[in-house]
Every structure is written in structure tokens, then in C-alpha cells.
Amino acid sequence: MKLVVWVKLLPTSEQALALEGTLRACNRAASHASAVAFAKGLKDRNGLQKEVYADLKAGFGLSAQPAVRAVKKVVDAYTTLKANLRAGNLGPPASRRYRKAVSTPIVFRPEAAQPFDDRCLSWQHDARTVSIWTVDGRMRGIRYTGHPDQLKTLATHRKGESDLVQRGGKWFLIATCEIPEPEVYEPVDWIGVDRGIVNLATTSDGTNHQGRSLSRYRRWQARKRAELQTKRTRSATRRLARRAQQEKRHATHVNHRISKEIVSVAQRTGRGIAVEELDGIHERVRLRRDQRGTLSSWPFHQLGAHLAYKARQAGVPFLEVDAAYTSQRCPRCGHTERANRPTRDHFCCRRCGLAGPADVVAGVNVRDRARSAWVFVTMPVLSAAQP
User: Fold this and answer.
1) Which of 4, 132, 325, 341 has its CA 20 to 30 A from that of 25?
2) 291 vs 247, more confident
3) What residues have CB less than 8 Å from 209, skipping those under 6 apart?
4) pLDDT digits (tens, 9 = 90+) for 44-96
């Protein structure tokens, strides 16, 4: 299982200047290699490296391994672009965004992340310092810090490349860690989780994680963005970008906290976690204009992703079940009707009279579907009958 660990670098002013010069030089080199790849149609790594390797070393001050990393970054970027075009993420071929993507070479921002492998970057975990290649030579003794749990994971399980990133004048290293997955246990039961906007997550146990404070925070951020957008200045644009990052970090923190609590309860009680499969929600649901922004920007997928990877990390079974009619079906008699949910918060079965909070009922239905689905997931595969 792969996890990403962020550590914050604490460079001196001299070290920070060297890191900034390195990042800009690597991205200028990558942009040059991208232009050559686009002009000559070189999308494979070996062909592009033969074409631009000497230029990257002589013209941009890169040593051998950083030049190779820059070429790989270009090839990976075009691979990602091709995948996005094939998946339709940039619109149809006639759209302006699609035509722009295929008619111009990829350009890398001056502060874009740059990958470093173990030949260019070494970690001294006991001293909490790194040694990294720069355009000014090898820079040693750059201090770093981070959360104790993440530093422990970094020292034990780091594997592969690490990315150098500059965000808001601060420096970070993003390291990939390969963590062994524990064996998934056989659950004694399931915790059904219903995700929503008013209530971010409601479990079949009746635990409710409300989204009222997050909604209030997002509305406040929307008002501030509207005020800044009316100013139309470069300073306002920079502040808009900072506010967008603040809002994203806040929502991520809330999702981390909720998912950590749900997974810990499941692990302590020996149960699994089941959620609704919400893929394609935009195609299935017709919304009013004033609801589209709220639904599009709400971190449904992120909460599900946090639950999935935290469950895998803890060895907790995790399932996604069909979301159809989970809020309209009676878990006792099975009667399904839209009138069973007269309001957003209340459920009352028109046949048997079962009543309760609508989100809890949906969580119970998710749990029941997980019980049935797990039987098929763990069913042994029958061999074909011999003639």
C-alpha cells in the first residue's frame, strides 16, 4: 500500500536560494524538453533522452541524473495528457480546451514539483536532515520536520522518488512510502455509512457527523471570494488562491477526522465498513442551478477515499454497495416508495409504519446490502465440472 508523506524543509536563506534556483532550472529544462518532444513527436523516454540530454546538461546546468528525471517528468506529463484526452476529461475533440491541449506543448510552471531519486537526494533520519543536489552543488544539512507518526513512517517505509515542492514561500519534500497491508479479517457485522451534505456521514449505529459547521465555513469563504473578485487586482487574485487552499485544507481535515473515527470504531468492534457507491452522481441527479456548485464542490469522493485507505491500513473490510433507493427503502419490510421520506430528515414507512431519522435508515440499508454483498465477495470459486 502506497502512502504519501509530506515533510517541511527548514532551509537557511542561502539554502532556500539554492533550492529555488534548482527548481526553476529543472522546470525550464523540462519545458524545453517538452517543446522538443512536441515538435518532433517524441513521446517515448529513450528517444527524447537521446535528443535533449546534452542540451539539458549544457544549457540549463543540470547534472546527469536531474536531466534524466526532467525527461521522465515530460514523458509522464504527456502520458497523463493522453489518458485525460481518451477519458474525455478535457471535453469533446471540438471543444476549445481539447484543441488547445493538443495544439500546444506542455509548459511547466517555474515552481512545479521536481522529482529526485536516491542519487540526488539522501535522508539522514537520526539528524533529521537531507542532502540534495542543487545547481550550486550538493547542499547538505538541510533540516526538516513533520508529524512524529509521519516521520516514523518515512524512516521505516520510504521507497522510490521524492518530490521537491515550494508552496507559499515554504519548502516541502513529498516522499512515497510502501507500507505492508495487514490481512483483512472476517467481519462479524458491518457499519453502514450514508454520506450527505447536511450530515457529512451518518452510520447505521446512529452516529451523526454533521456538516453544519463546514457549510457555514464554506458560505463564509464564498462571500469573501465574491468580495475579492469585485476588486480585480493582482493582490486580490493571490488572496483568492490562498483562500481556496485554506478551504481545501479545512475540508480535508474534517474528512480525515471523520474517517479516522469510523475506522477506529470498526476495528475495535471487529466490523467492516460499507458506503454507497456514488460514481456518476452528476449523470443520475438533476439539480437546480443554485445546487450545482454545492454538489460539485462537496468532498464526497475524498471522504470515501479516506475511509478506503484507512480501512486498508488497519485491515478493516471495506465495501461499496449500490446506492439506489437507500433513503426510500424500509429496512424492516422492504417497501420502497418516495413517500416514505416526506422530508429530508425524517423517514416513515407507508406500509409498516417504521419511522426514524432518514440518514440513519439509509445507513442501515447500506449495512444490510453489505451483509448480502460480502457473501458473494467471499464465495469460493467453483471449478468447472469435468466431462
Assistant:
1) 4
2) 247
3) 199, 200, 201, 202, 258, 261
4) 889 999 999 999 999 998 999 999 999 999 999 999 999 999 998 888 999 99
What is the residue whose three cell numbers read 536532515? 129
pLDDT in tens, 106-147: 999 999 999 999 999 999 999 999 999 999 999 999 999 999
Residue 195 pLDDT: 87
Q: What is the pLDDT of residues 308-345, one digit of tens each?
A: 999 999 999 999 998 888 989 999 999 999 999 999 88
Q: Which grid cell sits at 324? A: 439506489
